Amino acid sequence: MSSKILIIGACGQIGTELTTKLREIHGVTNVIASDINTRNLDLVNSGPFEIIDAKNYNAIKDCCLQNNVKTVYLMAALLSATGEKYPMEAWDLNMNSLFHVLNLAKQKTIDKIFWPSSIAVFGPTTPSENTPQHTICEPTTVYGITKQVGERWCEYYHNKYDVDVRSIRYPGIISYKAMPGGGTTDYAVEIYHEAIKTGKYESFLSENTSLPMMFMEDAIKATTKIMEAPAENLTIRSAYNLSAISFTPKEIFESIKAKMPEFSMSYKPDFRQAIADSWPSSIDDSVARKDWNWQHDYNLKEMTSEMLKQLRKKYNS
Ligand code: SER
Q: Whole-angstrom Cα distance, residue 32 to residue 55?
């Protein structure tokens, strides 16, 4: 049987588009999508799909053994805002799912893992401009703690057990297919939907809060690129800094307003403001650029054009 790829958390914001891309590259039947629910019917019906709870070691293991899965993309996680509401659930899901796949690789059931880290590993004591690859990481969110600890475990499993695990610190990801859920950067997705649907948006972050962001096309490109890179080129086995664009709510508003002059915006910061304030405003990703030739394609203007075009089609307006 040819070796297969398993995506855990395939119905999420990134998983949905990653599944499509990996199926284009490797063939539909070679990529098994899995999630805890079957709500995303388009995805469920687009190829092999299994219901798998990322916390269930035996379910993951059985799927890998039965289908000769050799590569796992672990995309299931509770994000920053949800993690603050349900700290123990975030710890439980984010850590145990990672241990499950790391241990499957340690036992040689699988060969290769992709596990996403995040800008949430940084905290208020991190230099906030052009944050270096190696720097102070004192995260103040549960989500950030799980990602920081996860990075340490990835590096540990690589060094001790020769596990081929690869990771990047995603910034906020902006996309039009599946909605993000429970993140602090989600405002930058909601704003486009509301621009098209209602012509106005109330931001839960204040107008000058600058955060690192990236269009989904670039995030998927980074994910496939790091997985295709020769192992000997990778000097980082915790997680690579990754960057594309940084902008504030005011700047994204202005980029939409340039295309939709009637669009209006108000600001009502909530508990997510403190999370955003603890994260860097821009990231130095020169190590990723050097090790595996990372480069992004989309700037804010291009992303806004594409988001508005696609969402107009979606909402028929
Ligand atoms: N987008 C994520 C969040 O806001 C950051 O990794 O939680």
A: 18
Mark whether 152 and 202 lie in a shared domain: no
Report the CATH number that the domain containing residue 306 is assigned in CATH. 3.90.25
Could you read off the pLDDT of 69-97 as tens digits, one per residue? 999 999 999 999 999 999 999 999 999 99
The atom of ligand 1 lying closest to the CA of 119 is 6
- Of the residues 143, 157, 170, 192, only one is catalytic, namely 143
Supply the residue whose CA is at minimum distance from atom 1 of ligand 1.
172
Q: Relative to the CA of 116, which ligand 1 atom is closest?
A: 6
- Provide the H-helix boundaries in 123-197: 142-161, 187-197
Same domain, 220 and 272: no
Does residue 123 contact residue 278 with C-beta atoms inside 8 Å?
yes
Tell me, yes or no, whether 122 and 183 share the same domain: no
Instruction: Determine whether 267 is an active site residue.
Output: no
Nearest alpha carbon to residue 32 among 21, 23, 41, 40 = 23
Provide the CATH number for the domain around residue 40: 3.40.50.720
The predicted-structure confidence for 242-253, as pLDDT tens digits, reads as follows 999 999 999 999
Query: How many A from CA of 245 to the centre of ligand 1?
Result: 15
**Total domain count for the chain?**
2
- Residue 194's domain comprises 172-213+245-281+299-315
